[in-house]
Amino acid sequence: MKLHTCTRAAIGALFIAACQLAHAHAYPTHQAPSAGATVPTTQKDVAIDFDDALEPAFSSITVTDAQGKAVTSGKAVVDPSNKKHMSVGLSALAPGVYTVAWVAVADDGHRTQGHYTFTVK
Fold it and tell me: Phi and psi for 17 in degrees, rounded to 5?
């Protein structure tokens, strides 16, 4: 069976677009503390590694306690030497459940987001 030139071009364009979409979003590869972890009250920060470089101006991590109060000690920072690593410092933590919410905007502008919890004992 012989494909027309236009059909081959369309299939090729779809394949390229699909490949770009597959690599266009930043997703977490490692979280510290991890989802569901139990950590001591001395936990100093939350750090997340992603599978794609981040745009620092639009990426963030927020951490809140069970009442929804922010417990971060500053703004999240994307490591300039490793743009796949973002972290945020924490204020003193009391025992309880904390929620981490993250927004990752990849260098190409695609946005992903998510959240998870960890427990302090």
Answer: -65, -45
**Residue 48 is part of a domain; what is its CATH number?**
2.60.40.1220
Q: How many structural domains compose the chain? A: 1
Q: Among candidates 121, 77, 82, 79, which has minimal Cα distance to 98?
A: 121
CA–CA gap between residue 104 and residue 85 (Å, rounded)? 10
What is the pLDDT averaged over residues 6-25? 50
Containing domain of residue 73, as a range?
25-120
92, 43 Cβ separation under 8 angstroms? no
Residue 21 vs residue 105, higher pLDDT:
105
pTM for this structure?
Answer: 0.81
HEC string of 83-98? CCEEEEEECCCCCEEE
Helix (H) or strand (E) holding 18: helix 5-22
